[in-house]
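In response to the reviewer comment on reproducibility (Comment 2.3), we provide here a single inverse folding case reported in full, input and output, so that an independent group could reproduce the run without further information from us. The structure tokens appear first.
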């Protein structure tokens, strides 16, 4: 996470020094959606009975709120009185918030820097490093979320390091190929990439609505949740329903394969 943030800052400085104000502005704009995770973190602090002080608000304003939560998890583990339930609750909060931040902030930054490397500046070292670290950070956020959901299941222990490494490699390869395919398509066909991605998004959103997921109760928020998750499904699969998911994963990859074939035919 520190390496990704440092590389993003270097990319911002890189564009500013070279006078590429367009890419500089777009890179800055990718930071704005991350405040959704920071706002949700403050609301959760308040719901847990912690009144946010000025220093806590300042940390979230600087987008360091998740760093504070990671520190709280480490401190709870180190303290002898920290119970397993308390640690698991804090770990769940930070995993969900980090996944939200990665999808809203890291993923757009990854797409932008990958497009710069492929279509604008193939020899750009700093954008390439920033894109690579963003890819790893996004993959690790997905792995951390999967790790947490595994810990929630009764009788399940923490997966060994080899399993987490395999999950990280799988997520990195899957995300990397999808991002590269979209960037190459955008380079060749320009705005037609939005038509292909939009068709995929609509299919996934309607499919999620047909599953009747009960993770959100209110109808309006339920529709908004399905639309947002449908956009995420362009890049990766996230299981939001309990029970076996083999059929849902098969449908997801079938639609993804159709999308790739349709893009190639166009």
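Designed residues, in position order:
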């Amino acid at each position: 996470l520190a390496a990704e943030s440092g590389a993003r800052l270097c990319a911002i400085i890189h564009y500013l020094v070279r006078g590429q104000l367009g890419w500089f502005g777009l890179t800055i704009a990718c930071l704005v959606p991350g405040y959704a995770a920071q706002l949700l973190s403050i609301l959760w602090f308040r719901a847990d009975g912690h009144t946010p002080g000025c220093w806590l608000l300042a940390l979230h304003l600087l987008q360091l709120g998740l760093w504070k939560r990671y520190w709280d998890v480490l401190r709870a583990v180190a303290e002898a009185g920290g119970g397993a339930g308390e640690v698991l609750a804090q770990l769940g909060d930070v995993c969900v918030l980090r996944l939200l931040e990665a999808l809203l902030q890291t993923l757009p930054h990854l797409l932008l820097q990958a497009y710069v490397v492929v279509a604008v500046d193939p020899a750009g070292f700093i954008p390439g490093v920033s894109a690579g670290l963003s890819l790893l950070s996004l993959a690790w956020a997905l792995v951390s979320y999967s790790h947490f959901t595994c810990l929630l299941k009764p009788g399940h222990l923490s997966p060994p390091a080899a399993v987490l490494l395999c999950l990280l490699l799988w997520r990195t390869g899957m995300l990397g190929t999808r991002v590269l395919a979209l960037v190459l398509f955008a380079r060749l066909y320009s705005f037609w990439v939005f038509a292909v991605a939009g068709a995929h998004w609509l299919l996934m959103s309607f499919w999620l609505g047909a599953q009747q997921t009960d993770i959100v109760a209110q109808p309006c928020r339920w529709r908004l949740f399905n639309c947002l998750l449908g956009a995420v499904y362009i890049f990766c699969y996230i299981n939001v329903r309990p029970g076996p998911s083999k059929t849902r994963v098969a449908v997801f990859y079938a639609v993804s394969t159709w999308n790739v074939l349709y893009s190639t035919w166009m």
